[in-house]
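FAQ: What does a multi-protein file look like?

Like this. Sequence, then tokens, then the next protein.
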Amino acid sequence: MPSLGADMAEGTVVEWLIGPGDEVRRGDVVATVDTEKALIDVECFESGTVDRLLVDVGTKVPVGAPLALIATAAPGGPPPAGPRPSGAPAPAEPPPPAAPPQPAEPPPPTAPPQPAAPPGTGPPRPRTAPHPAGRSPLTRRRAAAAGLDLAALPGTGPDGEVTRADVDQALRSGPPHRPRISPYARRLARERGLDPTALAAGTTGPLRARDVVAAPAAPVAPAPPPPRPRSVTAALMARSKREIPHYYLSTEIELGAALERLRRHNLAIPVADRVLPAAQLLHAVVRAAGAVPELNGHWIEDRFVPGDGVHLGVAVALRGGGLSVPVLHHADALDLDALMAALLGAAGRARSGRLRSSEADGATLTVTNLGELGVDAVTGVIFPPQVALVGFGAVRPRAWPEGDALVVRPVVTATLSGDHRATDGATGARLLHEIDRQLHRPEDTA
């Protein structure tokens, strides 16, 4: 179970996308894990052949627990067998060529599920309750590509959730039954909390609006619980305030020349690739963090551990509440255009619940920007075990001294929240000064 965030202690496997015998490569998405903060697609760490799944679907395990065994192929030889858990049968010697295969004893057709069956080999969990749709992003995409309605499929996952295997089974069973439902009837049914597919099953012809109007009203559902990410964020922020002695600094940065360079830069590239001022600010922070490494890293075991690069966390507000912080790894190796593309991709995946495990952890410095919400300045809370957080407010025209006169210039307020265990205010001031300097370099768009 990989660590998918500094606050993550355990996770629940909600779906396996592989099985024993499957070939996998490093970086393949192999499972979906519920971290109580979001559903994350977990990537494979090694290339090889899946030997065994060690954790059953629906099982919660701590960070660091092995999830599966992967046999890596030796050069010129067969794939070696991976270690097996205690109590598991030892790997068999290669059978002689003439030995007939041992037929497996068929399970009783009506035998109930065995709770003690080895993980990954037992029968599918019984469906305990209908589930409106699969939560896994891959399952949703696979069903959408096949034209399947997830709400009409039986689910074998936890609490009746539809898994990728259920979608595959539906595809193998033949063309899906698509009840005829008029678009207006479908919309009207959903507005009334009714299942249009279930209503269509009771009609001989197409389901029309008058059929929906005549159907009994759906029972009023209880109010949904608050979004889970709120409680997770609350716990993390409480830990930060409890453990980290914060200090705070702020400065105003004039952006007239920087925004003019960005305007000229955008005129020279396609419209779809144009860079937002927010990315320009992130680019300056990344370069400043490289120049002031004392604020780029983690506080672990009572000492500061510098980062092996600038891995920038970007705070993203989620629709419906909550906060996600996707990580742009090795942001110091990206130019402004590449940083803009990485920012767009990560923010989009965070808001749609499609973050990959490699994007969920490892930030050495985080930036929050509330300027688009009209906030003048933000003084943030550090994400442990990081030691600093940079905030930006809205870019506004303000009076700015220029020689003996006051002129109007676009100005942004930059703030720093620092961990007093790792640095002092003088170091924080150097970082803010370096951000200002980077934004005034003529080559800041390089």
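And here is the next protein:
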Amino acid sequence: MSKVEIRAPMPGVFYRKPSPDSPPFKADGEDVASGDAVGLIEVMKSFHEVTASVSGRSIHFLLDDAEAVMAGQVIAELEG
């Protein structure tokens, strides 16, 4: 089974939840459909949704909530 990577489209701060009191978009081990939101990246007080471009199983996040991310950095991996 191949691994599919979800990469950050821009630098900023990666958030796994839409708000501090909300559950995460996806928990480790969940399946992901193409177009599903997996997180947000904040850049200068502007939030940009990060979506999966492919479907996959058992998402594994490589970043914690509120962790700095660089453009092109791998955010999560899926089993494709």
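Q: Is there any per-entry metadata?
A: Some entries carry free-text notes. For the entry above: The mean pLDDT is 96.
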